Amino acid sequence: MEEPLKRTYFRWLTAVALVWTAGRIIQHVMPRWCAAPHVWASSGPILFILTAVCALAGPILYRTLFAHSKRNHTRIAADTFFTFERHLILIGMAALGLAMVADFLAVSFFYRSGSLLIALYAVYCGFPSKKRLALDRRIYRAAGGSRNPPDLVVYHNPRKRQPKIPKVNQQ
After folding, report:
1. What is the DSSP letter of 153?
2. C-alpha distances in angstroms, 26 versus 31, 34, 36, 57, 66?
3. 47 in a domain, yes or no?
4. Smallest Cα–Cα separation from 36: which of 48, 22, 26?
5. Above 60 in pLDDT, residue 146?
6. pLDDT tens digit string along 81-125?
7. Residue 167 is assigned to a structural domain of this protein
């Protein structure tokens, strides 16, 4: 499962990087035709906030909604978990795309650099490493890991959670 997610990650990262590089080259080669359009003064803060929402709040909200929708399931299918992880990657790449738009529109330096830093954070946190996928599998009780995820145990009577272990005097 890790390899297809990495392919998705690098495919989208390469696509955004190529579009960004091509756009910057075209802006430098043909400055009259591809000059940055005149933008409103409020477009910088708007793009900065949208980038922050996609990079920071988007994954948190998506994780919360996914956990809430699967709260009554003891296990989650591997394909459902794969789709969830792929959508997390795409949310991070949307933040990178918004940072690219902020750069192309030539908003003020503060908002442009802030959008870029937030987008880089989203791209860094969205990388599907073995460690993060194993942790997510355990958290969401997803099938398909190297070990079976723990079953969800629901206790109706809190007093029956743990049996009392008699204390032994050690000398």
Report:
1. -
2. 8, 7, 11, 33, 41
3. yes
4. 26
5. no
6. 889 999 999 999 999 999 998 888 878 889 989 999 999 999 998
7. no
